[in-house]
Amino acid sequence: MFELTLRPATPADVSVLLDLIMALAEYEKLSHAVTGTVEALKEHLFGANPDIEAIVAEYAGQAAGFALFFHNYSTFLAKPGIYLEDLFVLPQFRRLGIGKAVLSYLAQLAVSRNCGRFEWSVLDWNESAIAFYKRMGASILESTRICRLTEEPLTELASNNSSLKVRPATPEDTPTLFHLLQGKAEFDQKLDTLTGTPEALQRHLFGEPSYIEAILAESEGEVVGFATFFPNYSTFLTRQGLYVDDLFILPSHRRQGLGKAMLGHLAQLAVKRDCGRLEWLVAVWNDQAIAFYKRMGASVLPDWRICRVADDKLTQLAAQLGDNNQNLGEK
């Protein structure tokens, strides 16, 4: 029986990784969407400030697949997570348990790094993949959709200057930021899911390593809104993006342009950092928010769903890999 090996990618793997990315794009009939280069991928994986990580799956000594991932963040949990951007196994190596092994490997990594959850996305028509992920313990978030700003709509939003005050959060803002976060949890009727602490949030905002950033909106000297965000990544573009985890404005200060001002500020940051896209989630029932985001130039992706493994399901998935010869590695 051939042995499956899962290992962290090294700089020597970059050309193989790009070949696998091209194979993934061809499989999805999206070869035209791959605009990245070996040099960019190597810089983002192994440069001075790496954005992403990757693992290589080898079967019988051959590169059989890969996974590319990065840390995301949950403001409510005040914990980092792992987001799987891409997982691909070459067709001739399928039905050998490689996909399951990769998911278990990444779940182990999430547990070892004290992450709150492990997430990825799936197309809603891919019923076999959805069934497989559910068997692995994943929940499919049916009630949310991904919003995306890219290319001209992103630069156009970034070019809209607002007179409203939006600024980066500082450590001194942590109590105010957490109070607003409690307000969002109460407004969303999700106070029971707010399990993080101000101390953990401050550590992850301003400590080392930092996982997330925050901006605040002010009106007449009072902080009345916030947004938290972190870098994400596009494998096909080999470019970083920005992902908005939470955006909230006090109900008493809505319809004053603050939401547009914060999105504009985030779009400016994305353009300044040479990001390929700005993304966030929206609830499917929130017609008002969807209409607002579309006016800002965002596309609402109708067929993508978020998969999530958390709590006991995460530790159970991590345990499925067992104590094999895999080296999880550390950042």
TrEMBL record:
InterPro entries: Acyl_CoA_acyltransferase, Diverse_Substrate_AcTransf, GNAT_dom
Keyword list, A-Z: Acyltransferase, Transferase
SUPFAM superfamilies (alphabetical): Acyl-CoA N-acyltransferases (Nat) (SSF55729)
Domain N-acetyltransferase: 4-159, 164-316
Keyword Acyltransferase: yes
GO molecular function annotation: N-acetyltransferase activity
Keyword Transferase: yes
PANTHER family: DIAMINE N-ACETYLTRANSFERASE, GH14572P-RELATED
Family of this protein: Belongs to the acetyltransferase family.
Name of this protein: Histone acetyltransferase HPA2 and related acetyltransferases
